[in-house]
């Protein structure tokens, strides 16, 4: 506590003195922590009971003891038209994680925290089988429950991006990379940048990997590295708090449009957007770079993204009747 005050109120010596003189008995600390928790929970429940619109985000996973856990985040518009997001609860589920189990846990949390169910405008899930699908799954059960309004179900955008990225694979390159990483774990995912030191290290160890000197294998590795770096940047840009669904959709579709530019870059063999590929191609000027396979890979990735995110295009005109807010707020 003293450290917190020293940061928040560095000039308030009187307050710091009072904090330092406070008793630090275990039971005293426990009571104060409980009082802080109760105050935070009371404020959250009060604000939720008066909010104009609510959005939920659900994620079901298991802990280190293999116990299923349901985490519930809430984002709401307060009466002062302020958008707030909080962790609402972390619930331990029963031994089964059926749609009924998740709905029962969700109903209990919403009722306990005075969440106005009628003001729910969207519910985001991780896309697990128990969450989406038939009437026996969570979303189907919520849709069938007349106490819930006609909310907008949303599949987690980051999860979708991860599934789309799994399409882009180069197993013949990764098999060699993983074998070398098993020998030298320090090379990690900076493999391409450490290519020359890795070659030297393998020679010193007496390990033979002829692929490290094969132009076509190196070209494939370079192309794979370039695209993976773009996918990693996309993933990071989707993370963080206070991200609106409209912003996330714009990021995804912006990347989708960028893939068209990548295809043209590969077609002209300029490689302005593929620095690793350009580096290897310049190292072997007498070796022609066949880019047709690379263009097909980019095209397939674009189709995968379009397939998994196509429903987001219909959100552009969705408007909530509550205060004229667009669904994009959530």
From TrEMBL:
PANTHER family: DUF4371 DOMAIN-CONTAINING PROTEIN (PTHR45913:SF21), EPM2A-INTERACTING PROTEIN 1 (PTHR45913). It comes from the Eukaryota. This is General transcription factor II-I repeat domain-containing protein 2-like. It comes from Sipha flava (yellow sugarcane aphid).
């Amino acid at each position: 506590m003293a450290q917190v005050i020293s940061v928040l109120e560095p000039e308030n010596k009187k307050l710091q003195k009072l904090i330092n003189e406070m008793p630090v008995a275990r039971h005293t600390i426990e009571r104060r922590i409980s009082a802080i928790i109760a105050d935070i929970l009371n404020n959250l429940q009060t604000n939720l009971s008066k909010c104009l619109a609510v959005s939920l985000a659900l994620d079901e996973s298991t802990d280190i003891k293999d116990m299923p856990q349901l985490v519930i985040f809430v984002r709401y518009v307060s009466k002062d038209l302020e958008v707030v997001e909080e962790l609402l609860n972390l619930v331990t589920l029963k031994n089964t994680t059926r749609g009924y189990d998740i709905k029962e846990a969700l109903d209990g949390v919403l009722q306990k925290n005075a969440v106005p169910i009628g003001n729910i405008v969207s519910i985001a899930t991780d896309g697990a089988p128990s969450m989406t699908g038939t009437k026996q799954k969570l979303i189907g059960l919520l849709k069938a429950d007349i106490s819930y309004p006609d909310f907008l179900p949303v599949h987690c955008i980051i999860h979708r991006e991860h599934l789309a990225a799994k399409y882009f694979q180069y197993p013949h390159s990764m098999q060699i990379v993983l074998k070398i990483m098993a020998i030298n774990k320090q090379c990690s995912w900076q493999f391409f940048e450490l290519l020359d030191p890795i070659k030297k290290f393998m020679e010193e160890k007496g390990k033979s990997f002829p692929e490290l000197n094969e132009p076509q294998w190196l070209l494939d590795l370079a192309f794979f590295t370039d695209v993976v770096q773009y996918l990693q940047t996309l993933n990071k840009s989707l993370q963080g708090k206070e991200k609106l669904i409209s912003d996330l959709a714009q990021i995804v579709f912006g990347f989708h449009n960028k893939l068209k530019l990548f295809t043209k870059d590969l077609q002209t063999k300029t490689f302005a957007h593929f620095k690793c590929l350009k580096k290897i191609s310049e190292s072997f000027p007498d070796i022609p770079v066949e880019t047709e396979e690379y263009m097909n890979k980019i095209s397939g990735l674009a189709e995968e993204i379009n397939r998994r995110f196509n429903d987001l295009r219909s959100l552009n005109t969705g408007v909530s009747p509550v205060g004229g807010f667009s669904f994009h707020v959530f």
